[in-house]
Structure formats: C-alpha cells, structure tokens
Amino acid sequence: MFEIKNVHIGYQANEVISDLTIQLEAGKIHSIIGPNGCGKSTFLKAIGNQLKATYGEIVFQSSNIHKWGRKPFARELAYLMQENESNPEITVRQLIEYGRFPHKKKFERLNQDDQAIVEEAIKLTNLINLAERAVNSLSGGERQRAWIAMALAQQPTVLLLDEPTSYLDIHHQLEIIELLKQLNTEQGITIILVLHDINQAAMISDQIIALKSGRLYDFGIPKDVITQTMLHDVFKVNAEIIISSQSESISIYNFHLLNESLNNKK
Amino acid sequence: MMNDNKGFRKRKSWKAFVTICFLFLAIFSVMFSLGTGAVSVDIKSILSILFGDSASEYYDIIWNIRLPRTLVAVFVGINLALSGAILQGVMRNPMADPHIIGVSSGAGLFGITILLVFPAYSHLLVPVSFIGAMLTSLLIYLLAWDRGASPMRIVLAGVAASAFLNAGVNALYTFYSDRIQGAVSFMVGNLSAKSWEQVEIIVPYSLIGLTLAILSAQRMNVLLLGDSKSKSLGLNTEGYRLWFIAISALLAASAVSIVGLLGFVGLIVPHAARLLVGNDYKILLPASALLGVAVLCLSDTIGRVAFAPIELPVGIIMGGIGAPFFLYLLRKKRTL
Prior knowledge:
Number of strands of chain B: 0
CATH architecture of chain A: 3-Layer(aba) Sandwich
Strand content of chain B: under 5%
Number of helices of chain B: 14
Order of helices and strands of chain B: HHHHHHHHHHHHHH
CATH architecture of chain B: Orthogonal Bundle
Number of helices of chain A: 10
CATH class of chain B: Mainly Alpha
Strand content of chain A: 25-35%
Largest interface: A-B, 34 and 26 residues
Helix content of chain B: over 70%
Radius of gyration of chain B: 20 Å
Shape of chain A: globular
CATH class of chain A: Alpha Beta
Distance between the termini of chain A: 47 Å
Largest sheet of chain B: none
CATH topology of chain A: Rossmann fold
Oligomer: heterodimer
CATH superfamily of chain A: P-loop containing nucleotide triphosphate hydrolases
Order of helices and strands of chain A: EEEHEEHEHHHEHEHEEHHEEH
Number of domains of chain B: 1
Radius of gyration of chain A: 19 Å
Number of domains of chain A: 1
C-alpha cells in the first residue's frame, strides 16, 4: 500500500522527519504514536499528499505519490484533519455529500448512486437521526462521526485520521475507536491514524509506529512495540504494562515521570 | 426525525422564497429608477418604450438618459456584489470585499493620476483604471505568494499595498489640490451622466463573470471547507483560489473603472444576502447579484431625487442608508 523510502521532511535545522523508511500494508490499522512534536502529524500529512517530502520517496499503490492526480488520489484516500472547520449552517447530510466530490466530473450532479452511498455512510456512522441537523449544532463526538461519514462517502481504500479522539470524553472516544475497527473489518478500509493515547493505540492497532524526534523508533505489532523500554526512551515515562493472555489486550498503568526529567525541571 | 426533515425543507423553500423576493425587489428598483426623476413617467409608458415604442413623449428621457444610467447601476450592482461574495468565500472572511485585493486602491491611483495629472487624457479613465485595478490585484497575489497564497497573507499584502497606493493618491491630492474638484466624484463613486457607451463596456464583464461564478459555485462550497480539507477532496485549492480571485478582480475592476470607487456594495450586499439565504454559493451568488441590483438602483434613485436639483453621489447614499440597515440585520440575526 505505502512504501516510504528514506523520507526527510523539513530543512536542516528544522528537519521534522529524518530518514524514515517503512512499509504500510493494506487492510490493517496502523497507529502512529510518539510525544508532542515528534513529527506524527507531519508524517501523516506527507502520506496524505498534503505536504511534500524534502528528500526521499513515498510510493502509494505502486506509483509515486506526486504522480497521482488530486482527484484520483482523493478517490483512494480520505484524510480527517485534527481540526475541521465547516460552513456555519451546513447540515450533516450536505457535509457528507461533499465526500462524493472527487467522484464527480466538473458540473456533474449527484445521482441516485451517490445518494445511496451518502445514505450508507449516514447509517454506518449512526447519524440517521442527526442527518438534517446543522453540523455546528452537534456535540464533539457527533461532529467527529459526521466528518468520518464524509470521509466514508469518498469510498476510500485508505483512511487517515489525525488524533480523531482528542477533545472527546471516554465514551465518545470508544465510540470512534469501535467505529474505526468496524470499518476496518467490515469494509476492509486500511486505517492509518495518529493517537495520543497509547492504551487506545494498543487496543485498535495491528501495527504500531513509534516515532521519536522525527525518526522511526520502532515498528511492529502492539505487543512488541509497547514496552517499558519504549515508554522510557520515547515518552520519558515509567509505567507498568499488563498483557492479558486471553484477549491479547495490553494495558499500561501507573505512569510516572522519569526522575531525570523531574531533576531537569528543577 | 420527521420534524427535522420538515425544518430542512422549510429552510430550503425559505431560501428560494427570499431569492424570489430579491428578484421582485430588483425588478421594482429598476422600474422605480426609470420612472422617478424631474419628470415622473408611469410604468405603462416605461414598458411600452422598453418594448420599442419610439413615438412616446418620454422616449428620449427613458431611452437615452435614464435607461443607460439604470443599466450601468444594474451591472455595477451585480459585479460588486458577486465580487464581494466570491472574495468573502475565498478568504473565508466575512469582512472581505473588493478593497482587499487592491481593486479600489489600484483603480484609485491610476484613475486619479489621469484625472489630476493628465486631464487631457480623461477619455482614457476607464481603461486606465481597469488596468490599475487588475495590476494591483496581481501584485498583491504575487506578494502574498509563499508556496501558496494563504488568505491571511493575501489580506495582509492587500492592506500594505492599499496603504502604499493610497499614499500615492493623497500625494497627488496635495500636488494638484486646485484640480481636486473633478476627482471627488470618482473617489466616492457615482452614476451621473452614464451613457450607452458605458453600458456596452460593462455588460460583457458582467455576463462572463456571472456565468463563470455560478458555474463554479459548487467548487466554492468545497473551498469553504478549508484548504487542507478541500485539497484532500481532490480540489486544486491553489488553482481555484487564483481562479476565483481573478473572476472577482475582473468583476470589481470593470465596475469601479466606470463608476469610481464605490465601496460598501461589495461588503454589505453579499453579507446581507448571506444572513438571509445562508452560505451555499449556489444560492448565495444569484441572491447577492439580485440584491446588488436592487440596492444600487434604489440608492441611485434616492440620490437623484432626495435633494434635487443637487444630485448626491450613489456612494454617499449607500453608506448613509446601507450601514444602519446592515447593523440592524447584524443585531437581529446572530448566526454569522
């Protein structure tokens, strides 16, 4: 799906991503984790074709990302930003209809097929009762679902999400996480997302990408990547990790700062 | 859900209703403008003259004097309102208007140069101010460019460039203070003494601009979702931003080069239309154009008759009546 070869983003002193090489497989959920400012969002923007890599090559579905036309690319890949602004009184349905834009020729109108796809996206994201409401009148969790629905209307093979659960309470965070899992298993959509919460990343991901100051620290299945050493090196925290044998789930608890970083502050 | 659905339909039909009201208001304003003046002409005579009755006693007044002036008002209204509506969308800023891309300051400096420094060439006023307006918008776009021209950079470059050009205008005022008389009406904008010649100049710009704008309305809607979102939907964001700025520069430049620096229409009219019909550019553009026609025709007519025989420039009426009305709308409906 994605082959990222020796990618650098930014210039010398301001290099955000340095020499990143990684391959991302189709059909899986990949989480990018790392501390603030480690280049997670920048990396996501680069593979979402929003940002050009300074050096190196990003290959998406066997052709270089720059060779993709904007519209064909948008038919394959949907991108959900960290912050979304919308037209003040636009309704949920109208917002989702914009997702059909890359599939339409200039001046072509939405037809019945498009309407069916929009309807399907509304159902999948459980927005039936909210479809005619103004997006701005929704709560944070509902709004996030509306943006995901718009991305689904693009019928992408890949969905990129930049911290889709931030600013949401735990219930709505889980709602989004469950929805993404469902989209991955039922629709076969490849998902690449940036997450702050390591527990959530462990819960949802097939693969975890840990970044540390713009470099790839580790990449692999959650059990292998989420270790005390990684937490120590990347996040500068100590914590305990429990891997439950039956559900293969990982939980991290009892976080505390490293002594050295405490001392540094003093 | 039933209720929500109903509410939505209501909103949609409400938008259509408001737009149709604007249409009637525009038609009424045109008729009012044609019929009112030193000599009142009844609507029947106006209609018969419009449909080719050259024998009427009012033929000369209507056909040769009032009609061209009214038509210039109609097309200037369309152009400035559309230009403002487009720019507010492109800049995602409700305070944007044709000033922001330097159309007014460019046309101002070039036009004033002709009027004050080279009065012998005043027949070139229209093309020269048009060139000034277009050159300034281009300059501002280039100044704002840094791997893409973000709305914020355009606004800032526009403020700087306008300040610079206005300094030039003020310098000319100081040097040629004896000739200022002739320049005042150009600087406020007025519609007096417009003839068929000016109608012919502005019509093509209006028609082309209107067509292009309405055809691109859906793209404008997508652009309103923000740069990165519209990019990720496959829109050539940078290209369309330039496209829309070019259309609005063309519309505004053709208007101000003919009637002078008529401010306000481009800011207030689209804003008022937006308050009433919402942000969907497929409806907002035609609604703004119609409201622009109504506002300009009414203001000009009031300016002609209110203090007759002294004629107030339309720009003054627009500010005097439009601003309080706008404030009223603003207070009444808070969803901006």
